[in-house]
Write a structure and sequence with these properties.
Chain A is of the alpha+beta class and 248 residues long. The first copy, chain A, contains eight helices and twelve strands. Chain A binds a DNA duplex (30 and 30 nucleotides) through helix 6.
DNA sequence: ATAAGTTATAAACATAGATTAATTTTTGCG
DNA sequence: CGCAAAAATTAATCTATGTTTATAACTTAT
């Protein structure tokens, strides 16, 4: 883990800002908010950002890279709660209880913008816009959690996998404006199983089937969805609704 | 649906206050916050509180009764997201997007304290404590959602049912201080199935088994758990952690 | 008190997905 | 480049849960 405190990139130039916490703030508010940022952190793939049970004293915005948020189970398995992508705001709790209910691990090399939490609190008191912006993000995460719960509880394995792949594909597509047909996709079939409550073996079976149907192309950490509408049908979700939810 | 605007009960005497939104506010703040309340609403069992897609213009604290929050699926089924009990705060969104992502229906006769949302916003700006209190509740709901997701995704039907029954039993126990061994439990086996992604028939099989093991007694809208620790083992959850999460 | 609608229970059968175990392919590293 | 570890793939078997169909026990309203 490497800390960077000099020559930080400017928030107003940041590629992920529009989809991040400060996305809706006016420029003058932005300058005030930016002062909150203390440093950037670079974390190699596989390393923890924080552990379940830790007290949060920093908040992070992901600048680049993918993160997995999960709970460890008594039987040695883990339940992945969600995958966090650039622009996502992690590890901040406004309430008095600062104990974190889950762990976070870097799936690829990750760069974070870090904010000391105590400064945050005082600024929020003066800047209600920031409180509203944070709450808006929390509400979005909760809505996403509701749709994931729905997908996991009431659909087949094929629909669940299709739902997860499509969600992540849509998010990555808006973040990364390149013209390449594939987007980066740094998770394994086992990660997908841990997120959906399926074995990696069954995830593999579903992958074969989705590939045969021409719904996905996926290898070596890359994903391409030739026809999003078709995959949405298999995922049993309305594509416009999913786009709204995933791309803000 | 009946509206009450006269002789409302006082917040400082309210039986559910300590577990509700204003629970952590000081008395002087409380008086300010209480002015937000416009009226009480009584809703008969089976009637909707609001529908998915509605724009929220009021917020509610449940004063008495149980509510089911759910999404309707294309195949005619519904996914219950959670059951809301007295003290729960519903239907408020701080962010700009006021569209509700789920519906709510009364499971028993429900009395609500209603707050017009526009007044709320201005008060929050002046009273950061209220913003923190609301966020603390949202964070609690999110953590509960994480544990439900975990239970649904990675445990057996027996563990899921045990988890849900124990959660609700613990919540109802702290709300209702009576000495009766049973607590009210106004939901059907089908509701439980809709919450956990199981058929009501399989929920029934699990009920038989839990009863045979002496882990629950449940009939005519009442529930008794003779040994919470034993049920927690079946639910694959740590009882102290669940008690913290469910009883605040 | 009776009828009508819900909710719970029961049993037989079908299947999606888990489990186990082995093999192949890809990735990362010295 | 070549090795070791991780990830993906395949196949055989097993089991938890869904499906279907019926009936019984409650609730609620007339």
């Amino acid at each position: 883990m490497k800390s960077i405190t000099q020559n930080l990139p400017k928030c107003q130039d940041c590629a992920v800002r529009k989809s991040a916490l400060f996305g809706e703030l006016e420029t003058d508010h932005l300058n005030k908010a930016r002062e909150l940022r203390s440093h950037q952190i670079v974390i190699p793939a596989g390393e923890h950002l924080y552990h379940e049970g830790d007290e949060s004293d920093k908040a992070f915005t992901i600048y680049s890279g993918w993160v997995s948020l999960f709970k460890n189970l008594e039987d040695g398995n883990r339940q992945i709660l969600r995958f966090a992508l650039p622009g996502d705001f992690l590890c901040y709790k406004m309430g008095k209880n600062k104990t974190l209910d889950h762990s976070a691990i870097a799936l690829s090399e990750v760069t974070l913008c870090a904010f000391p939490i105590d400064r945050f609190h005082t600024v929020i008191s003066e800047l209600p816009e920031l409180a509203f912006a944070i709450s808006a993000m929390t509400e979005l995460v909760t809505e996403r959690c509701h749709t994931v719960l729905t997908s996991i509880a009431s659909h087949t394995a094929e629909a669940k996998v299709a739902y997860l792949l499509l969600s992540l594909y849509l998010r990555e597509r808006v973040l990364n404006k390149t013209e390449e047909k594939c987007v980066q996709f740094p998770i394994t079939q086992e990660d997908i199983g841990d997120a959906l409550g399926l074995t990696s073996i069954h995830v593999n079976r579903v992958f074969q089937s989705l590939r045969k149907q021409g719904l996905i192309e996926c290898k070596s950490k890359c994903l391409w969805v030739p026809d999003k509408a078709k995959l949405a049908v298999v995922a049993k979700v309305s594509l416009p609704e999913l786009e709204r939810l995933m791309c803000k």
